[in-house]
Design brief:
Elements lengths: L2 H15 L3 H12 L5 H13 L3 H10 L8 H13 L3 H9 L5 H18 L1 H12 L6 H10 L5 H12 L6 H13 L6 E4 L5 E4 L11 H14 L4 H18 L3 H4 L3 H12 L9 H19 L1
Antiparallel strand pairs: 1-2
Helix pairs in contact: 1-2, 2-3, 3-4, 3-5, 4-5, 5-7, 6-7, 10-11, 12-13, 12-15, 13-15, 13-16
């Protein structure tokens, strides 16, 4: 901060201490666009919350989320802002990552969900309807509708997710995102997924690891780095990108599909280098199939 900005900050800090929230918020919103400072961000969020400017507060909250969980009062404000914006699923996801205050903060979300059910029933039903019909649209629109579904209470979100996971027209990447989200939310209800091989599998999301928490994914990335080395950074980059997309398509059945990670990475690098791959092994067949889906994805986006 330069001297003028420091003066603004001290002025705003004094107004916050005096609970002059409106005046403080005007100074802080101006300052937060000029400097990248976590304390300025934190105070901006708090001041906007106290002036009930919840939508604006949420914009800054996404940017400075981490600094709002060093103190319980700040954490309450952060979760309350998400609840006021009806971002119930996101609020629950944030809480699930905390090591403390979970029960107390969760009560704010539950109360907000109940209020939404009672006061905005028609809006809630419209959101749920849009979520149910997600499979009728392109991947981009499906992803957009998934984001919109974050405004559903958890039970309604789970109900919609169960339907979409069995829908053949829900894009595989949306299905994997849904399962991973339910995993992070520690959902214990079994869900059935209509998967890439046109077979249904039942999983309990709470028993799964998130995609990038899977040891086989970390091992795949390590092997790509070792096998490509410094000799061919272009191949390493392409292989890393392709591998990440492959496991995104395969989740939650990554470990069941990639039986031999060393063989899988050898085939992947060979395909990228333009070598002829004989489709005798299961890994080669799967990679050919995934390659077609990834190519189609790239063409459309």
């Amino acid at each position: 901060m330069n001297e003028a900005q420091q003066d603004k900050y001290l002025q705003a800090k004094k107004l916050v201490d005096e609970e002059q929230w409106q005046d403080a918020s005007e100074i802080l919103e101006e300052l937060v666009t000029e400097v990248d400072d976590s304390e300025v961000g934190r105070l901006t969020i708090i001041a906007l919350y106290h002036t009930q400017q919840f939508t604006r507060a949420c914009t800054y909250l996404f940017e400075y989320l981490e600094v709002m969980f060093d103190d319980f009062t700040d954490a309450q404000i952060a979760i309350s802002i998400l609840v006021q914006n009806e971002l119930f699923v996101l609020a629950r996801q944030v809480i699930s990552n905390l090591s403390q205050w979970q029960d107390k903060l969760l009560s704010l979300v539950v109360a907000g969900e109940e209020k939404s059910r009672q006061e905005y029933q028609e809006t809630l039903q419209a959101r749920l309807r849009d979520f149910y019909h997600l499979g009728d649209y392109s991947l981009t629109e499906q992803q957009s509708r998934l984001q919109a579904a974050f405004k559903l209470p958890l039970n309604e979100f789970i109900t919609g997710s169960k339907f979409l996971l069995r829908d053949p027209y829900t894009h595989p990447l949306v299905k994997s995102s849904l399962v991973e989200l339910l995993c992070k939310l520690q959902v214990n209800d079994p869900v059935t997924i209509y998967w890439l091989d046109k077979t249904e599998y039942t999983v309990i999301p709470a028993d799964l690891l998130p995609l990038n928490g899977l040891p086989i994914v970390a091992e795949g990335k390590r092997l790509i780095s070792i096998k490509c080395g410094n000799q061919n950074p272009q191949t390493e980059r392409l292989a890393s990108q392709e591998f990440q997309l492959q496991v995104m398509f395969l989740y939650p059945r990554v470990e069941q599909t990639i039986v031999d990670i060393d063989e899988w990475i050898n085939i992947l690098i060979g395909r990228i280098e333009g070598k002829t791959i004989k489709e005798k092994s299961g890994a080669a067949k799967w990679q050919s199939r995934l390659g077609e889906q990834i190519d189609e994805l790239m063409e459309k986006h």
